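Note on ligand handling. Small-molecule inputs were canonicalized before submission; formal charges were left as drawn, and no protonation-state enumeration was performed. Where a ligand contained multiple stereocentres, the stereochemistry in the source SMILES was retained. For zinc ion, this procedure yielded the string shown in the input block below.
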Amino acid sequence: MTEGYIKFNCDWEPSEIQISEVIYNQLEAERTKLFALGLIGMYPDGIGFGNISVRTEGSSFLITGSATGQFATLNQSHYSHVCAYNFKENSISCKGLTKASAESLTHAAVYEVLPEVGAVVHVHCLWLWEKLLNHYPITSGEIEYGTPGMAEAVKVLASELKMKEEKIIIMGGHREGILAFGKNLEEATTKVIEIYNRYQND
Ligand SMILES: [Zn+2]
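Structure output:
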């Protein structure tokens, strides 16, 4: 059963958002660690990769905006607040001085099925991705990033992870893409870095 390709639709309200100092500092502290390891960054062709988010209320969340990968530090204007989303329509509504990317729907999928999750981290790392392929739940290689299919696949895998200690999902059709989540951002980031260190010398 294949779905026709549905273009990602972002309903963006380009206005300033208020992020509390506590949340902002937390986002920056954890993102800095991932950036230092090259797990968030920019490819030579100028395309940014990696994003992190924290739940605000319900299933809405704050996420690093699109095209922010190259910056070592971000200010409040680089974040976007995803207020609503629709998996079937491949759409989100967001607010902020930077737009949220299509990958926001993958974050939304995790928040939707796991109420206890407070933060989602999405990083890119080819060698780590290759090493983790056979160790963690993985989405089908046929499902591309930023598609409704990816959100659906992540929903299924995330709900199966409920009781598992290591909340990691490998994105099979999104080469290099790894997803980690936890009750808060520190937990999710620590997990990624722990695995990065564990497999580095493997
Ligand atoms: Zn990605």
